[in-house]
Amino acid sequence: MFAETGAVQSSIPAKADAHAELRSALYAGIIAAVLSMIQPASFILALPLGGFLSVLLYRRRSMGDPRPRAGFRLGAFTGLFAFGLLIVLAAVLTLVSHNEVKLRADIIQDIQQAQAHNPDPQAKQISDYLMTQQGVALIMIFGVVFGCVLCVLLSGIGGAISASLLRRKGPPEL
After folding, report:
1. DSSP 64
2. What is the pLDDT of residues 32-79, one digit of tens each?
3. How far apart are CA 137 and CA 132, in angstroms?
4. Rounded to whole angstroms, how far apart are CA atoms 35 and 49?
5. Closest by Cα among 62, 56, 80 to 156
6. Residue 170 phi, psi dihedral angles, 5° rounding
7. Is the dihedral of CA 113, 116, 119, 120 positive or negative?
8. Are the CB atoms for 50 and 35 separated by under 8 Å?
């Protein structure tokens, strides 16, 4: 009977810890997404910074001191939140500005430029397929998956670095 009470008490901090993780990752993800929208290439710095910030926020919200592995996980969640926000904003901006046709034309133009630099007949067949509607959809899906993986990795690395650098030191051993 007493063991059951102890098990219930130990699960409450774990739930609070999970809330602290998600909140920290969400807030840091919002900041990383906003910073990523400033300049097209700023995501290279904004996402690791978001991962770093998520560990800082987590440390403030909980009594825990995450290890680098947990810091990577926290940063990865930050990257997922930032990516989700960026995708939603990009989709809304594309639909509001009616740039769907321009986006497709830009993709086809890039494929044609790459085709002009490659005389290989097999490359021409591939590029001809990529200029079809299915090919453009394939390119966009690949781009979204690649972007998600990149966001998760960059933010995760920032979180792991933060967790390893900001680790609280215990008393010195004698």
Report:
1. -
2. 999 998 887 888 999 999 999 999 999 888 877 888 999 999 999 999
3. 9
4. 9
5. 80
6. -80, 180
7. positive
8. yes
